[in-house]
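Box 3.1. Reading complex inputs
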Amino acid sequence: MVRACTAKSHAMERIVAVVPEAGLHARPASKFVQTANRFDSEITVGRADGEDSVSANSMLAVTGLNIEHGEDVRITAEGDDAAAALDELEALLTTPVEDEEEASE
Amino acid sequence: MKLSGVGSTPLSGVGTARWYRPGDLTLPEKPDPSEVESDAEQSRFEAAQATARADIETARQQAAERVGEDEAAVFEAHLQFLDDPQLVDDIERAIGGGTPAEHAVNDRFGEATAQFEGMDGRMAERADDLRDIRDRLLRALLGVETVDLSALPAGTVLLAERLTPSDTAELDPEAVAGIATVTGGRTSHAAIIARSLSIPAVVGVGEGLNRIEEGATVLIDGEAGRVVVDPDEDERAAAGGVDAPVVERAVSTADGKRIEVAANVGGSAELDPAAARGADGIGLFRSEFLFLDRQSPPDESEQYEAITTALEAFPDDRVVVRTLDIGGDKDVPYLDLPTETNPFLGQRGIRLSLGTHSELFETQLRALLRAGASEHGDDLAVMFPMVTRIEEVEAAIEHVEAVAADLEREGVEYAVPELGVMIETPAAALLADALAERLDFLSIGTNDLTQYVMAVDRENDAVADYHDPLQPAVLRAIDRTVSAAEGRDAWVGMCGEMAGDPELTELLVGLGLDELSMSAVTVPAVKQQVQQTTIDDARELADEVLTCETRAEIEAILNG
């Protein structure tokens, strides 16, 4: 497939280790999808060393990855606000939320 | 009729049975695609989505008000699943291709549910969430009426095949006296929500629950995991403690023998509730909770803090800390415990503390000896789990002495607390005389003692009836332990589930126990029983029970 490739539509990507104890499940997953949906860019997420990346706007797909605490994920974003999206998503995955885990047993 | 299941909220309540059978969601036969008007189906789907969205919003608000923001978060995830582009796109595509809306929803959610069901625990819970959302959509599409769980009449005991998290969060704890379900486990989301709402609950009762008729009077005993139809006075009184008033002060039998009624505690958050229920101190402080759900072991100062916090919560009462009891069914990933064919017969408790994990043991002993010199340190006691040999006790005491010598050298304040052992193996019961010679106290752990005396796996349902502390062999092991300690200046307590059963209080007092330690929730009921007991009658009862050779004879005497 031939596709026009302009500088603007270049996908940006970032590798991030998942810090929350719950991994990419429960509330961290929920927040991740909510945040991804706020941006216009096409965003995907998957294991850094895998080929399982999925659309970040699907809760079903994101939780289906079954990514645990400590795993490295690759986030890609393509679009005008790609850099801002990556910044926010990275911040989200690198913030621990331990007290929540405790509260939900 | 008495049924048993898994007690998931350790409270009890009596009320009127009401069955919750969510409407029949059987789909009509799938018509030929040519007969389906895709546009109309698309509108129906959108309307159902809107209804479901509004319902979930309501559930979210109710949960936030009644339970808390953390529990409400599950409904945010529900909203995301409801609008998930992968699900919605596929459903709309199917509708466009001539599938009626309800079939499109059912098929696509079915696939997604199956995908999650195949995965491990946390993922399997997502399957529950997806079923919950699917049912909301189907109810809207099929026009099935929903029961308003938030408006049940006061004194309802709700019975159901299963409850979803949203069902449970809708319940009004003021109106619902208890719940019981056919399926489900202690750690399911619905069970956790019921616990945080303080609704008495027994889950996983099995098909037998269906025999209970609408309108029957039902007792839910979430402590014992029992569901009793038409309970009599005694059964009501014996159930999980809610009816018994809290007795703050220490209690004695009617003729004056003091019996300590203490609480078992598995986390710092349980200290205040235990004090509120009138516990005379902590009879079992499960120190392993400090080691679970983390990446590395707690250091000395963290352990010291946890122990002194417990001592401060009970300034005038004893706190018995059990040293690290891991192995068996309690794994701690970062400790690299060996994989064993028979973990309950392998390296657990004191065996690890004296063997491969002695450095953890010494750190714990340092924290304990330092806590012994803290403000309320006089009341500290320490016991070792899973003892089977006198050499182990001698080695453990040597460790204590070595740690004391280190602290002395370092100029750190310390005091050696009372030392004791758990009696939870036949070996320890048979050696009770030699143990009592060397130690300040013995504490009988009936759950494990029953497991090892009866040679029965606690976790195996197929042999569950063998796991019964009222078996003559178990009672004789208890009697032997208490008798062996007599005249040897050691007190004897009990910290298994048996100690918290008010129906057995008289028997246990008669057997000669000085201290009973249990889940805090049963403390008030047991204190009440102690005050109604007289030593003479209790001894007579115990003597009679000890002559029995079968479980049936014992039951006849206790019920007689």
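In summary: Residues 216 and 337 of chain B are 50 Å apart (CA to CA).
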